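Field log, afternoon session.

UNIT: design team B
ACTIVITY: writing a sequence onto a fixed backbone
BACKBONE:
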Protein backbone atom coordinates (compact mmCIF):
# COMPACT_ATOMS: atom_id res chain seq x y z
CA UNK A 1 0.00 0.00 0.00
CA UNK A 2 1.31 3.45 -0.89
CA UNK A 3 2.39 5.73 1.92
CA UNK A 4 0.66 9.00 1.08
CA UNK A 5 0.83 11.14 4.23
CA UNK A 6 3.83 13.21 5.30
CA UNK A 7 5.75 11.57 8.14
CA UNK A 8 5.78 12.60 11.77
CA UNK A 9 9.16 12.72 13.46
CA UNK A 10 9.96 12.15 17.14
CA UNK A 11 12.96 11.49 19.31
CA UNK A 12 11.06 8.59 20.91
CA UNK A 13 7.83 6.85 19.89
CA UNK A 14 6.04 4.92 22.65
CA UNK A 15 3.47 2.43 21.36
CA UNK A 16 0.81 1.75 23.99
CA UNK A 17 -1.16 3.77 26.54
CA UNK A 18 -1.25 1.40 29.52
CA UNK A 19 0.73 1.68 32.72
CA UNK A 20 4.03 0.75 31.06
CA UNK A 21 3.65 3.18 28.16
CA UNK A 22 2.42 6.07 30.30
CA UNK A 23 4.98 5.65 33.07
CA UNK A 24 7.72 5.05 30.52
CA UNK A 25 6.79 8.21 28.61
CA UNK A 26 6.87 10.21 31.86
CA UNK A 27 10.28 8.74 32.69
CA UNK A 28 11.87 9.84 29.40
CA UNK A 29 13.97 13.01 29.59
CA UNK A 30 11.82 16.11 29.12
CA UNK A 31 14.33 17.37 26.53
CA UNK A 32 13.09 14.74 24.08
CA UNK A 33 10.13 15.02 21.75
CA UNK A 34 7.95 12.03 22.59
CA UNK A 35 5.03 10.58 20.67
CA UNK A 36 2.62 8.31 22.58
CA UNK A 37 0.68 6.16 20.14
CA UNK A 38 -2.45 4.37 21.39
CA UNK A 39 -4.78 1.99 19.61
CA UNK A 40 -7.71 3.10 21.78
CA UNK A 41 -8.41 6.28 23.73
CA UNK A 42 -6.31 6.61 26.89
CA UNK A 43 -7.45 4.63 29.96
CA UNK A 44 -8.78 1.69 27.92
CA UNK A 45 -5.79 -0.59 28.42
CA UNK A 46 -5.45 -3.92 30.22
CA UNK A 47 -3.61 -2.06 33.00
CA UNK A 48 -6.84 -0.22 33.71
CA UNK A 49 -8.56 -3.54 34.35
CA UNK A 50 -6.08 -4.57 37.05
CA UNK A 51 -7.98 -5.09 40.29
CA UNK A 52 -5.51 -6.58 42.72
CA UNK A 53 -2.83 -3.93 43.08
CA UNK A 54 0.92 -3.44 43.06
CA UNK A 55 3.29 -5.68 45.00
CA UNK A 56 6.13 -3.78 46.65
CA UNK A 57 8.15 -3.91 49.86
CA UNK A 58 6.96 -0.94 51.94
CA UNK A 59 6.43 -2.59 55.35
CA UNK A 60 9.37 -2.78 57.82
CA UNK A 61 8.28 -6.36 58.64
CA UNK A 62 8.68 -7.31 54.98
CA UNK A 63 11.96 -7.60 53.07
CA UNK A 64 13.40 -7.66 49.57
CA UNK A 65 14.66 -11.17 50.24
CA UNK A 66 11.15 -12.44 50.97
CA UNK A 67 9.66 -10.78 47.90
CA UNK A 68 12.44 -12.22 45.76
CA UNK A 69 11.90 -15.66 47.27
CA UNK A 70 8.14 -15.53 46.64
CA UNK A 71 8.66 -14.43 43.03
CA UNK A 72 11.20 -17.17 42.30
CA UNK A 73 8.95 -19.82 43.85
CA UNK A 74 5.91 -18.72 41.84
CA UNK A 75 7.99 -18.69 38.63
CA UNK A 76 8.58 -22.45 38.93
CA UNK A 77 12.37 -22.12 38.80
CA UNK A 78 12.47 -20.27 35.48
CA UNK A 79 12.85 -16.66 36.64
CA UNK A 80 16.06 -14.72 36.05
CA UNK A 81 17.27 -14.08 39.63
CA UNK A 82 19.15 -10.91 38.67
CA UNK A 83 16.04 -9.46 37.03
CA UNK A 84 13.90 -10.39 40.04
CA UNK A 85 16.32 -8.70 42.42
CA UNK A 86 16.32 -5.62 40.20
CA UNK A 87 12.51 -5.52 40.13
CA UNK A 88 12.06 -5.88 43.86
CA UNK A 89 14.81 -3.47 44.90
CA UNK A 90 13.50 -0.65 42.66
CA UNK A 91 9.84 -1.00 43.62
CA UNK A 92 9.88 1.37 46.59
CA UNK A 93 11.14 4.33 44.51
CA UNK A 94 8.33 3.84 41.99
CA UNK A 95 5.69 3.68 44.72
CA UNK A 96 6.98 6.92 46.26
CA UNK A 97 6.77 8.61 42.86
CA UNK A 98 3.19 7.42 42.37
CA UNK A 99 2.18 8.79 45.77
CA UNK A 100 3.77 12.12 44.83
CA UNK A 101 1.76 12.08 41.59
CA UNK A 102 -1.42 11.65 43.60
CA UNK A 103 -2.31 7.99 43.12
CA UNK A 104 -4.94 7.40 45.82
CA UNK A 105 -3.82 4.14 47.38
CA UNK A 106 -5.98 2.90 50.24
CA UNK A 107 -4.59 3.78 53.66
CA UNK A 108 -4.71 2.36 57.14
CA UNK A 109 -4.39 5.37 59.40
CA UNK A 110 -1.40 7.36 58.14
CA UNK A 111 0.23 4.40 56.39
CA UNK A 112 -0.48 2.60 53.14
CA UNK A 113 -2.93 -0.29 53.50
CA UNK A 114 -1.48 -3.65 52.48
CA UNK A 115 -3.22 -6.89 51.67
CA UNK A 116 -2.20 -10.51 51.05
CA UNK A 117 -2.49 -12.31 47.73
CA UNK A 118 -1.73 -15.83 46.62
CA UNK A 119 1.88 -17.06 46.96
CA UNK A 120 3.00 -13.94 48.87
CA UNK A 121 4.50 -14.67 52.28
CA UNK A 122 3.66 -11.20 53.60
CA UNK A 123 0.89 -8.63 53.02
CA UNK A 124 2.59 -6.30 50.52
CA UNK A 125 -0.10 -5.46 47.95
CA UNK A 126 -0.95 -1.77 47.66
CA UNK A 127 -4.41 -1.13 46.29
CA UNK A 128 -7.08 1.44 45.55
CA UNK A 129 -10.18 -0.59 46.48
CA UNK A 130 -10.52 -3.07 43.57
CA UNK A 131 -9.84 -0.42 40.93
CA UNK A 132 -6.07 -0.08 41.35
CA UNK A 133 -5.29 -0.30 37.64
CA UNK A 134 -7.91 2.27 36.74
CA UNK A 135 -6.69 4.66 39.45
CA UNK A 136 -3.08 4.21 38.33
CA UNK A 137 -3.75 4.65 34.60
CA UNK A 138 -6.03 7.65 35.05
CA UNK A 139 -3.44 9.42 37.22
CA UNK A 140 -0.61 8.65 34.80
CA UNK A 141 -2.73 9.74 31.81
CA UNK A 142 -3.49 13.04 33.53
CA UNK A 143 0.23 13.56 34.11
CA UNK A 144 1.08 12.72 30.48
CA UNK A 145 -1.48 15.18 29.11
CA UNK A 146 0.17 17.95 31.11
CA UNK A 147 3.57 17.42 29.46
CA UNK A 148 4.29 19.75 26.55
CA UNK A 149 7.00 17.44 25.18
CA UNK A 150 4.64 14.45 24.87
CA UNK A 151 2.20 14.31 21.95
CA UNK A 152 -0.61 11.77 22.38
CA UNK A 153 -1.86 10.19 19.15
CA UNK A 154 -5.03 8.22 19.91
CA UNK A 155 -6.69 5.62 17.69
CA UNK A 156 -3.43 5.03 15.82
CA UNK A 157 -2.74 1.41 14.88
CA UNK A 158 0.92 0.41 14.72
CA UNK A 159 1.25 -2.00 11.80
CA UNK A 160 4.99 -2.70 11.62
CA UNK A 161 8.38 -1.56 12.78
CA UNK A 162 10.64 0.29 10.36
CA UNK A 163 13.99 -1.50 10.53
CA UNK A 164 16.94 -0.71 8.27
CA UNK A 165 20.51 -2.00 8.48
CA UNK A 166 19.66 -3.86 11.69
CA UNK A 167 18.34 -0.80 13.55
CA UNK A 168 14.82 0.46 14.32
CA UNK A 169 14.06 3.88 12.85
CA UNK A 170 10.34 4.22 13.36
CA UNK A 171 6.93 2.67 12.91
CA UNK A 172 4.46 2.10 10.12
CA UNK A 173 1.06 3.32 11.36
CA UNK A 174 -2.52 3.31 10.15
CA UNK A 175 -3.74 6.75 11.24
CA UNK A 176 -6.66 8.88 10.11
CA UNK A 177 -7.40 6.61 7.19
CA UNK A 178 -3.86 6.51 5.85
CA UNK A 179 -0.83 4.25 6.12
CA UNK A 180 2.07 6.39 7.32
CA UNK A 181 5.66 5.91 8.40
CA UNK A 182 6.68 7.86 11.49
CA UNK A 183 10.36 8.39 12.19
CA UNK A 184 11.91 8.09 15.64
CA UNK A 185 15.38 7.84 17.10
CA UNK A 186 14.05 5.13 19.41
CA UNK A 187 10.84 3.10 19.58
CA UNK A 188 9.33 1.67 22.77
CA UNK A 189 6.88 -1.22 22.56
CA UNK A 190 4.36 -1.05 25.41
CA UNK A 191 1.53 -2.84 23.64
CA UNK A 192 0.53 -5.27 26.38
CA UNK A 193 -0.31 -8.94 25.99
CA UNK A 194 -2.34 -11.21 23.76
CA UNK A 195 -5.26 -12.46 25.86
CA UNK A 196 -7.67 -12.10 22.94
CA UNK A 197 -5.95 -15.08 21.30
CA UNK A 198 -7.91 -17.17 23.84
CA UNK A 199 -11.50 -17.59 24.95
CA UNK A 200 -12.43 -16.75 27.59
CA UNK A 201 -10.04 -14.00 28.61
CA UNK A 202 -10.00 -11.29 31.25
CA UNK A 203 -8.19 -8.94 28.83
CA UNK A 204 -9.80 -6.03 26.93
CA UNK A 205 -10.40 -6.24 23.16
CA UNK A 206 -7.16 -4.39 22.31
CA UNK A 207 -4.94 -7.13 23.84
CA UNK A 208 -4.19 -8.90 20.55
CA UNK A 209 -0.44 -9.46 20.75
CA UNK A 210 0.44 -6.80 18.16
CA UNK A 211 3.77 -5.80 19.71
CA UNK A 212 5.13 -9.33 19.97
CA UNK A 213 4.12 -9.99 16.36
CA UNK A 214 5.75 -6.80 15.07
CA UNK A 215 8.95 -7.49 16.97
CA UNK A 216 9.11 -11.06 15.66
CA UNK A 217 8.61 -9.94 12.05
CA UNK A 218 11.38 -7.39 12.54
CA UNK A 219 13.77 -10.08 13.76
CA UNK A 220 13.81 -9.37 17.50
CA UNK A 221 14.42 -12.29 19.86
CA UNK A 222 11.37 -13.62 21.70
CA UNK A 223 11.40 -15.70 24.89
CA UNK A 224 8.97 -17.82 26.92
CA UNK A 225 6.02 -17.20 24.61
CA UNK A 226 4.58 -20.58 25.61
CA UNK A 227 3.93 -19.38 29.16
CA UNK A 228 0.40 -17.97 29.33
CA UNK A 229 -1.16 -17.52 32.74
CA UNK A 230 -4.80 -18.38 33.31
CA UNK A 231 -6.39 -16.50 36.18
CA UNK A 232 -8.25 -19.08 38.27
CA UNK A 233 -11.34 -17.04 39.17
CA UNK A 234 -13.12 -15.27 36.32
CA UNK A 235 -16.88 -14.76 36.46
CA UNK A 236 -18.53 -17.70 34.65
CA UNK A 237 -22.05 -16.50 33.82
CA UNK A 238 -23.42 -17.17 30.31
CA UNK A 239 -23.34 -13.97 28.29
CA UNK A 240 -21.26 -12.06 30.84
CA UNK A 241 -17.68 -10.91 30.23
CA UNK A 242 -15.02 -12.94 32.03
CA UNK A 243 -14.72 -10.45 34.87
CA UNK A 244 -11.59 -11.12 36.88
CA UNK A 245 -12.47 -11.77 40.52
CA UNK A 246 -9.26 -10.63 42.17
CA UNK A 247 -7.39 -13.17 44.26
CA UNK A 248 -7.27 -10.45 46.89
CA UNK A 249 -10.84 -11.65 47.58
CA UNK A 250 -9.39 -15.02 48.59
CA UNK A 251 -6.58 -13.27 50.41
CA UNK A 252 -9.18 -11.60 52.61
CA UNK A 253 -11.22 -14.69 53.43
CA UNK A 254 -13.20 -16.01 50.47
CA UNK A 255 -13.23 -19.78 49.76
CA UNK A 256 -13.40 -21.98 46.68
CA UNK A 257 -16.02 -24.74 46.69
CA UNK A 258 -16.88 -27.52 44.28
CA UNK A 259 -20.43 -28.63 43.46
CA UNK A 260 -20.43 -30.93 46.49
CA UNK A 261 -19.80 -27.89 48.69
CA UNK A 262 -16.23 -29.01 49.53
CA UNK A 263 -13.24 -26.69 49.98
CA UNK A 264 -11.21 -28.72 47.52
CA UNK A 265 -8.01 -26.63 47.28
CA UNK A 266 -6.41 -28.17 50.36
CA UNK A 267 -6.34 -31.49 48.48
CA UNK A 268 -4.04 -29.88 45.89
CA UNK A 269 -1.79 -27.58 47.92
CA UNK A 270 -1.14 -26.87 51.62
CA UNK A 271 -1.77 -23.14 51.04
CA UNK A 272 -5.27 -23.90 49.80
CA UNK A 273 -6.90 -20.92 48.07
CA UNK A 274 -3.67 -18.93 48.41
CA UNK A 275 -1.55 -21.33 46.38
CA UNK A 276 0.18 -19.90 43.26
CA UNK A 277 -2.17 -19.05 40.41
CA UNK A 278 -1.16 -21.89 38.15
CA UNK A 279 -1.78 -24.37 40.98
CA UNK A 280 -5.26 -22.97 41.66
CA UNK A 281 -6.13 -22.88 37.94
CA UNK A 282 -5.01 -26.48 37.43
CA UNK A 283 -6.88 -27.61 40.54
CA UNK A 284 -10.09 -25.99 39.31
CA UNK A 285 -9.61 -27.56 35.88
CA UNK A 286 -9.17 -30.97 37.46
CA UNK A 287 -12.31 -30.48 39.55
CA UNK A 288 -14.27 -29.48 36.46
CA UNK A 289 -12.97 -32.52 34.58
CA UNK A 290 -13.79 -34.82 37.50
CA UNK A 291 -17.31 -33.48 38.06
CA UNK A 292 -18.31 -32.64 34.49
CA UNK A 293 -19.21 -29.08 35.51
CA UNK A 294 -18.19 -25.84 33.76
CA UNK A 295 -17.48 -23.80 36.89
CA UNK A 296 -16.73 -23.99 40.60
CA UNK A 297 -17.95 -21.59 43.27
CA UNK A 298 -16.29 -18.68 45.05
CA UNK A 299 -17.79 -18.00 48.46
CA UNK A 300 -17.45 -14.42 49.75
CA UNK A 301 -20.10 -14.89 52.44
CA UNK A 302 -17.55 -15.51 55.25
CA UNK A 303 -16.22 -11.97 54.72
CA UNK A 304 -17.37 -9.00 56.76
CA UNK A 305 -20.04 -7.32 54.56
CA UNK A 306 -18.94 -3.77 55.35
CA UNK A 307 -15.31 -4.58 54.61
CA UNK A 308 -16.24 -6.32 51.36
CA UNK A 309 -18.33 -3.34 50.19
CA UNK A 310 -15.42 -0.98 50.82
CA UNK A 311 -12.68 -3.21 49.46
CA UNK A 312 -14.35 -4.72 46.39
CA UNK A 313 -17.04 -2.30 45.16
CA UNK A 314 -16.49 -2.93 41.45
CA UNK A 315 -16.58 -6.72 41.80
CA UNK A 316 -19.76 -6.58 43.86
CA UNK A 317 -21.42 -4.09 41.51
CA UNK A 318 -20.61 -6.09 38.37
CA UNK A 319 -21.73 -9.39 39.87
CA UNK A 320 -25.01 -7.79 40.94
CA UNK A 321 -25.53 -6.48 37.42
CA UNK A 322 -25.49 -10.13 36.32
CA UNK A 323 -27.94 -11.23 38.97
CA UNK A 324 -25.56 -12.44 41.69
CA UNK A 325 -25.19 -10.88 45.12
CA UNK A 326 -21.78 -12.16 46.32
CA UNK A 327 -22.55 -11.35 49.95
CA UNK A 328 -25.56 -13.69 49.87
CA UNK A 329 -24.83 -16.14 47.05
CA UNK A 330 -22.00 -18.22 45.64
CA UNK A 331 -20.21 -16.79 42.59
CA UNK A 332 -19.67 -19.15 39.61
CA UNK A 333 -16.01 -18.91 38.50
CA UNK A 334 -13.65 -20.67 36.10
CA UNK A 335 -10.13 -20.03 34.75
CA UNK A 336 -9.60 -17.55 31.91
CA UNK A 337 -6.55 -16.40 29.92
CA UNK A 338 -5.07 -13.48 31.80
CA UNK A 339 -1.35 -12.72 31.34
CA UNK A 340 1.48 -13.51 28.92
CA UNK A 341 4.72 -14.10 30.82
CA UNK A 342 6.81 -14.31 27.66
CA UNK A 343 7.38 -11.73 24.97
CA UNK A 344 10.15 -9.64 23.46
CA UNK A 345 13.47 -10.36 25.15
CA UNK A 346 14.90 -7.32 26.97
CA UNK A 347 17.76 -6.52 29.31
CA UNK A 348 17.46 -4.58 32.57
CA UNK A 349 17.41 -1.28 30.65
CA UNK A 350 14.44 -2.43 28.51
CA UNK A 351 16.60 -2.83 25.40
CA UNK A 352 15.63 -5.52 22.89
CA UNK A 353 18.03 -7.32 20.56
CA UNK A 354 17.38 -4.67 17.86
CA UNK A 355 19.23 -1.37 18.44
CA UNK A 356 16.79 1.50 18.82
CA UNK A 357 13.95 -0.79 19.92
CA UNK A 358 12.83 -1.08 23.55
CA UNK A 359 10.01 -2.97 25.23
CA UNK A 360 8.31 -2.52 28.61
CA UNK A 361 5.35 -4.12 30.36
CA UNK A 362 3.56 -7.30 29.37
CA UNK A 363 4.93 -7.24 25.81
CA UNK A 364 8.45 -7.68 27.21
CA UNK A 365 10.17 -10.75 28.58
CA UNK A 366 12.33 -9.30 31.34
CA UNK A 367 12.88 -12.62 33.11
CA UNK A 368 11.05 -11.66 36.29
CA UNK A 369 8.02 -13.92 35.85
CA UNK A 370 9.46 -17.26 34.78
CA UNK A 371 6.68 -19.75 34.02
CA UNK A 372 4.08 -18.12 36.26
CA UNK A 373 3.73 -14.50 37.34
CA UNK A 374 3.48 -13.79 41.05
CA UNK A 375 0.28 -11.88 41.80
CA UNK A 376 0.53 -8.07 41.44
CA UNK A 377 4.09 -8.14 40.10
CA UNK A 378 2.84 -7.04 36.68
CA UNK A 379 2.11 -3.40 37.48
CA UNK A 380 5.38 -3.28 39.41
CA UNK A 381 7.21 -4.55 36.32
CA UNK A 382 5.58 -1.81 34.20
CA UNK A 383 6.84 0.84 36.60
CA UNK A 384 10.34 -0.43 37.34
CA UNK A 385 11.31 -1.12 33.74
CA UNK A 386 9.38 1.86 32.40
CA UNK A 387 11.54 4.00 34.70
CA UNK A 388 14.67 2.68 32.98
CA UNK A 389 13.72 4.65 29.88
CA UNK A 390 15.28 7.66 31.57
CA UNK A 391 18.55 6.13 30.29
CA UNK A 392 17.33 5.66 26.72
CA UNK A 393 19.79 6.03 23.84
CA UNK A 394 18.48 8.31 21.12
CA UNK A 395 21.58 8.84 18.95
CA UNK A 396 20.42 9.18 15.35
CA UNK A 397 22.72 7.43 12.89
CA UNK A 398 20.91 8.12 9.66
CA UNK A 399 19.12 5.55 7.55
CA UNK A 400 21.40 3.44 5.40
CA UNK A 401 23.38 4.63 2.41
CA UNK A 402 22.31 5.64 -1.07
CA UNK A 403 20.48 2.82 -2.81
CA UNK A 404 19.88 0.82 0.37
CA UNK A 405 16.47 -0.74 0.88
CA UNK A 406 14.52 0.45 3.91
CA UNK A 407 12.85 -2.68 5.13
CA UNK A 408 9.76 -2.86 7.33
CA UNK A 409 9.43 -5.53 9.95
CA UNK A 410 7.14 -7.67 7.80
CA UNK A 411 9.83 -8.01 5.15
CA UNK A 412 8.08 -5.87 2.52
CA UNK A 413 10.04 -3.05 0.93
CA UNK A 414 8.89 0.47 1.46
CA UNK A 415 10.16 3.91 0.57
CA UNK A 416 9.93 6.02 3.72
CA UNK A 417 9.63 9.71 2.87
Amino acid sequence: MTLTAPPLEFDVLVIGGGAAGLYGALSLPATLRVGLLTKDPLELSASGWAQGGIAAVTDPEDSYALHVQDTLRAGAGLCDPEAVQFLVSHGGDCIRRLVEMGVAFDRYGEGLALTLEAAHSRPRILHAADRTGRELVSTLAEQVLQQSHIQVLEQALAVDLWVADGRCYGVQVWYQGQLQTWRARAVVLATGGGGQLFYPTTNPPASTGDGVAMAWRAGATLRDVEFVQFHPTALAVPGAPALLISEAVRGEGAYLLNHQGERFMLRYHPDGELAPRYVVSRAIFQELTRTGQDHVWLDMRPMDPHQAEQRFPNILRTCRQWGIDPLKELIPVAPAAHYWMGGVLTDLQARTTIPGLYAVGEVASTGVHGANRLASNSLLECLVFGAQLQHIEVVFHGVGGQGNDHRLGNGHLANPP
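LOG NOTE: The chain has two domains: 9-227+341-414, 232-337.
NEXT ACTIVITY: expression trials, pending approval
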